[in-house]
Amino acid sequence: MRYSAWEVLRHGLTGNGGWKPVWRDPAPKPRYDIVIIGGGGHGLATAYYLARVHGIRNVAVLERSYIGGGNSGRNTTLVRSNYMLEGNMSFYSHSLRLWEGLEQELNYNVMFSQRGLVVLGHSDGQVEMLARRGTMSIMAGDDGELWSREECRRQMPYLNYDDQRFPIYGALMHRRGGTARHDAVVWGYARAADRLGVDIIQNCEVQGFRIENGKMVGVETSRGYIGSGKVGMTVAGRSGQVAAMAGFRLPIESQVLQAFVTEGLKPILPTVVAFGMGHFYISQSDKGGFVFGGDLDGYNSYAQRGNLPMMEHVAEAGMALMPMIGKAKMLRSWGGINDMTMDGSPIIDRSPVENFFVNCGWCYGGFKAIPGSGNVFAHLMATGNHHKAADKLLLNRFETGQLLDETGNGPSPNLH
Question: Please, what's the b/e burial string for 206-220 (b: 16 or more CB within 10 A of its CB; e: otherwise)?
Answer without folding.
Answer: beebebeeeebbbbe
